[in-house]
Amino acid sequence: MPLFEDAPSQSQTDVPWQLLSGYLSSKQQQLLWQEAAHFPFSRPELTVFGKQHAIPRTQAWFADAGCDYLYSGLMIRALPWPHYLARLCQQLNQEFQLQLNGVLVNHYANGQEKMGWHSDDEPELMPQSTIASVSLGAARDFDIRHKQSGEKHRIALAAGDLLLMRWPMQRDWQHALPSRAKITDARLNFTFRQIVPFYHQP
Ligand SMILES: O=C(O)CCC(=O)C(=O)O
Question: What's one Pfam family here (predicted)?
Answer without folding.
Answer: 2OG-FeII_Oxy_2
